Protein backbone atom coordinates (compact mmCIF):
# COMPACT_ATOMS: atom_id res chain seq x y z
CA UNK A 1 0.00 0.00 0.00
CA UNK A 2 1.44 3.40 -1.00
CA UNK A 3 1.18 6.60 1.07
CA UNK A 4 -1.72 7.91 -1.00
CA UNK A 5 -3.76 4.77 -0.47
CA UNK A 6 -3.10 4.74 3.28
CA UNK A 7 -4.14 8.40 3.50
CA UNK A 8 -7.40 7.68 1.72
CA UNK A 9 -8.12 4.84 4.13
CA UNK A 10 -7.32 6.85 7.27
CA UNK A 11 -8.54 10.36 6.43
CA UNK A 12 -10.53 10.35 3.18
CA UNK A 13 -12.67 7.24 2.86
CA UNK A 14 -15.19 6.99 0.04
CA UNK A 15 -18.66 8.33 0.80
CA UNK A 16 -21.28 8.25 -1.95
CA UNK A 17 -23.24 11.00 -0.18
CA UNK A 18 -20.59 13.55 -1.15
CA UNK A 19 -21.66 13.44 -4.78
CA UNK A 20 -24.98 15.22 -4.18
CA UNK A 21 -23.20 17.96 -2.24
CA UNK A 22 -20.67 18.36 -5.03
CA UNK A 23 -23.42 18.51 -7.64
CA UNK A 24 -24.66 21.69 -5.97
CA UNK A 25 -21.10 23.05 -5.61
CA UNK A 26 -20.38 22.36 -9.28
CA UNK A 27 -23.55 24.17 -10.33
CA UNK A 28 -22.45 27.17 -8.30
CA UNK A 29 -19.01 27.07 -9.95
CA UNK A 30 -20.43 26.76 -13.47
CA UNK A 31 -20.70 30.56 -13.52
CA UNK A 32 -16.88 30.62 -13.77
CA UNK A 33 -16.68 27.80 -16.32
CA UNK A 34 -17.40 28.29 -20.05
CA UNK A 35 -19.70 25.65 -21.53
CA UNK A 36 -17.02 24.47 -23.95
CA UNK A 37 -14.30 24.56 -21.30
CA UNK A 38 -11.34 22.26 -20.84
CA UNK A 39 -11.08 21.56 -17.11
CA UNK A 40 -8.39 19.88 -15.00
CA UNK A 41 -9.06 18.70 -11.45
CA UNK A 42 -5.85 18.53 -9.38
CA UNK A 43 -5.76 15.94 -6.61
CA UNK A 44 -9.20 14.87 -7.78
CA UNK A 45 -9.83 12.30 -5.07
CA UNK A 46 -12.99 10.38 -5.89
CA UNK A 47 -13.88 12.69 -8.76
CA UNK A 48 -16.70 14.50 -6.99
CA UNK A 49 -15.94 17.83 -8.69
CA UNK A 50 -14.86 16.70 -12.15
CA UNK A 51 -17.73 14.22 -12.46
CA UNK A 52 -20.29 16.95 -11.76
CA UNK A 53 -18.91 20.01 -13.54
CA UNK A 54 -20.22 20.90 -17.00
CA UNK A 55 -17.33 21.01 -19.47
CA UNK A 56 -16.42 19.78 -22.94
CA UNK A 57 -13.08 18.27 -21.95
CA UNK A 58 -12.40 16.89 -18.48
CA UNK A 59 -9.07 15.82 -17.00
CA UNK A 60 -8.15 14.64 -13.52
CA UNK A 61 -4.87 13.95 -11.72
CA UNK A 62 -4.46 12.06 -8.47
CA UNK A 63 -1.57 10.26 -6.81
CA UNK A 64 -3.77 7.27 -5.99
CA UNK A 65 -4.20 5.23 -9.19
CA UNK A 66 -7.10 3.30 -7.65
CA UNK A 67 -9.26 6.41 -7.95
CA UNK A 68 -9.62 5.88 -11.69
CA UNK A 69 -12.55 3.56 -10.94
CA UNK A 70 -14.59 6.47 -9.55
CA UNK A 71 -14.30 8.67 -12.66
CA UNK A 72 -17.10 9.07 -15.18
CA UNK A 73 -16.37 7.85 -18.69
CA UNK A 74 -15.87 11.38 -20.02
CA UNK A 75 -13.00 12.08 -17.60
CA UNK A 76 -9.40 11.48 -18.69
CA UNK A 77 -7.67 10.31 -15.51
CA UNK A 78 -3.92 10.41 -14.84
CA UNK A 79 -2.50 8.54 -11.87
CA UNK A 80 0.38 10.87 -11.09
CA UNK A 81 1.75 13.39 -8.63
CA UNK A 82 0.74 17.03 -9.02
CA UNK A 83 4.45 17.78 -8.54
CA UNK A 84 5.24 16.11 -11.87
CA UNK A 85 4.79 17.95 -15.15
CA UNK A 86 1.08 17.79 -15.88
CA UNK A 87 0.40 15.55 -18.93
CA UNK A 88 -1.46 18.48 -20.50
CA UNK A 89 -0.45 20.69 -23.43
CA UNK A 90 0.71 24.25 -22.78
CA UNK A 91 -2.04 26.88 -22.68
CA UNK A 92 -4.79 24.33 -23.37
CA UNK A 93 -6.95 24.64 -20.25
CA UNK A 94 -9.71 27.07 -19.39
CA UNK A 95 -9.96 25.95 -15.78
CA UNK A 96 -7.70 24.30 -13.23
CA UNK A 97 -9.52 23.34 -10.04
CA UNK A 98 -8.17 22.19 -6.69
CA UNK A 99 -10.03 21.34 -3.51
CA UNK A 100 -8.24 20.85 -0.20
CA UNK A 101 -4.91 20.36 -1.97
CA UNK A 102 -2.46 23.21 -1.50
CA UNK A 103 -2.22 22.84 2.27
CA UNK A 104 -0.45 19.50 1.77
CA UNK A 105 2.67 21.09 0.23
CA UNK A 106 5.57 23.23 1.37
CA UNK A 107 6.73 26.45 -0.29
CA UNK A 108 9.06 24.76 -2.78
CA UNK A 109 6.40 22.28 -3.82
CA UNK A 110 3.79 25.01 -4.15
CA UNK A 111 6.08 26.89 -6.53
CA UNK A 112 6.23 23.79 -8.75
CA UNK A 113 2.44 23.41 -8.72
CA UNK A 114 1.86 27.06 -9.57
CA UNK A 115 4.34 26.87 -12.42
CA UNK A 116 2.50 23.83 -13.79
CA UNK A 117 -0.87 25.54 -13.44
CA UNK A 118 0.28 28.69 -15.26
CA UNK A 119 1.91 26.65 -18.03
CA UNK A 120 -1.31 24.77 -18.79
CA UNK A 121 -3.80 27.64 -18.49
CA UNK A 122 -4.80 29.64 -21.53
CA UNK A 123 -4.40 33.41 -21.24
CA UNK A 124 -7.38 34.45 -19.16
CA UNK A 125 -7.85 30.91 -17.86
CA UNK A 126 -8.84 30.46 -14.24
CA UNK A 127 -7.39 28.70 -11.23
CA UNK A 128 -10.30 27.93 -8.86
CA UNK A 129 -9.45 26.78 -5.36
CA UNK A 130 -11.51 25.54 -2.44
CA UNK A 131 -9.32 25.63 0.62
CA UNK A 132 -9.53 25.46 4.42
CA UNK A 133 -9.42 29.02 5.71
CA UNK A 134 -7.06 28.96 8.68
CA UNK A 135 -8.60 32.18 9.97
CA UNK A 136 -11.77 30.22 10.81
CA UNK A 137 -10.56 26.63 11.30
CA UNK A 138 -7.32 26.95 13.28
CA UNK A 139 -8.58 24.67 16.08
CA UNK A 140 -9.02 21.60 13.85
CA UNK A 141 -6.62 22.48 11.05
CA UNK A 142 -3.64 20.44 12.23
CA UNK A 143 -5.73 17.34 12.97
CA UNK A 144 -4.76 16.26 9.46
CA UNK A 145 -1.23 14.93 9.85
CA UNK A 146 -0.37 15.68 6.20
CA UNK A 147 -0.97 19.44 6.40
CA UNK A 148 2.21 21.42 5.78
CA UNK A 149 0.97 24.92 5.02
CA UNK A 150 -1.75 27.16 6.45
CA UNK A 151 -3.55 29.76 4.33
CA UNK A 152 -6.03 32.42 5.31
CA UNK A 153 -8.09 34.19 2.63
CA UNK A 154 -5.62 37.08 2.83
CA UNK A 155 -2.51 34.91 2.63
CA UNK A 156 -3.66 32.85 -0.35
CA UNK A 157 -4.68 35.90 -2.39
CA UNK A 158 -1.27 37.44 -1.75
CA UNK A 159 0.36 34.14 -2.73
CA UNK A 160 -1.59 34.00 -5.99
CA UNK A 161 -0.74 37.62 -6.82
CA UNK A 162 2.94 36.98 -6.11
CA UNK A 163 2.70 34.02 -8.52
CA UNK A 164 1.47 36.31 -11.30
CA UNK A 165 -2.27 35.62 -11.11
CA UNK A 166 -5.10 38.15 -10.94
CA UNK A 167 -7.72 37.72 -8.22
CA UNK A 168 -11.31 37.68 -9.53
CA UNK A 169 -13.33 36.43 -6.58
CA UNK A 170 -12.75 35.61 -2.91
CA UNK A 171 -15.39 34.12 -0.62
CA UNK A 172 -13.77 33.76 2.82
CA UNK A 173 -16.61 31.61 4.16
CA UNK A 174 -17.77 29.22 1.45
CA UNK A 175 -18.34 25.70 2.84
CA UNK A 176 -17.98 23.84 6.15
CA UNK A 177 -14.53 22.53 7.02
CA UNK A 178 -15.37 18.89 6.34
CA UNK A 179 -18.11 16.72 4.87
CA UNK A 180 -17.55 14.25 7.72
CA UNK A 181 -20.01 16.10 9.93
CA UNK A 182 -23.39 14.72 10.94
CA UNK A 183 -25.20 17.31 8.86
CA UNK A 184 -27.34 15.71 6.11
CA UNK A 185 -25.68 15.47 2.72
CA UNK A 186 -28.35 17.07 0.58
CA UNK A 187 -28.26 18.66 -2.87
CA UNK A 188 -31.07 21.08 -2.06
CA UNK A 189 -29.68 22.02 1.35
CA UNK A 190 -26.23 22.66 -0.16
CA UNK A 191 -27.73 24.71 -2.98
CA UNK A 192 -29.68 26.82 -0.49
CA UNK A 193 -26.58 27.18 1.68
CA UNK A 194 -24.39 28.42 -1.18
CA UNK A 195 -26.97 30.98 -2.25
CA UNK A 196 -27.50 32.26 1.28
CA UNK A 197 -25.73 35.42 2.54
CA UNK A 198 -25.31 33.65 5.89
CA UNK A 199 -23.27 30.44 5.96
CA UNK A 200 -23.04 28.96 9.46
CA UNK A 201 -20.07 26.65 10.14
CA UNK A 202 -18.32 27.79 6.93
CA UNK A 203 -14.57 27.37 7.39
CA UNK A 204 -13.47 26.79 3.80
CA UNK A 205 -12.90 29.57 1.33
CA UNK A 206 -13.30 29.89 -2.42
CA UNK A 207 -10.74 31.78 -4.51
CA UNK A 208 -10.97 32.40 -8.25
CA UNK A 209 -7.83 33.74 -9.92
CA UNK A 210 -6.97 34.20 -13.59
CA UNK A 211 -3.79 34.04 -15.66
The portion of residues assigned to helices is: 25-40%
Placed side by side, the strands forming the largest sheet appear as 3-2-1-4-5-7-6
What overall form do the CA principal axes indicate?
Answer: globular
| Largest sheet, strands/sense/barrel | 7 strands, mixed
Tell how many strands the DSSP assignment holds: 7
- The average pLDDT value, as a whole number, equals 91
Q: According to CATH, what is the topology?
A: Rossmann fold
Q: How many individual domains?
A: 1
Q: H/E series, N to C?
A: HHEEEEHEHHEHE
**How many DSSP H or I helices?**
6
Stretches where pLDDT falls below 50 for ≥5 residues? none
- CATH homologous superfamily? Vaccinia Virus protein VP39
- At the first level of CATH, the class is Alpha Beta
Q: What is the CATH architecture assignment? A: 3-Layer(aba) Sandwich
Structural class: alpha/beta
Q: Quote the beta fraction.
A: 25-35%
Distance between the termini: 38 Å
Supply the key terms:
globular; 7 strands; Rossmann fold; 211 residues; single chain; alpha/beta
Question: How would you sum up this structure, described in words?
Answer:
Helix content is 27%, strand content 26%. The chain has 211 residues and is α/β, with parallel strands linked by helices. It has a single domain, classed as 3-Layer(aba) Sandwich (Rossmann fold), CATH 3.40.50. Strands 3-2-1-4-5-7-6 form a seven-stranded mixed β-sheet. It is globular, with a radius of gyration of 16 Å. The mean pLDDT is 91.
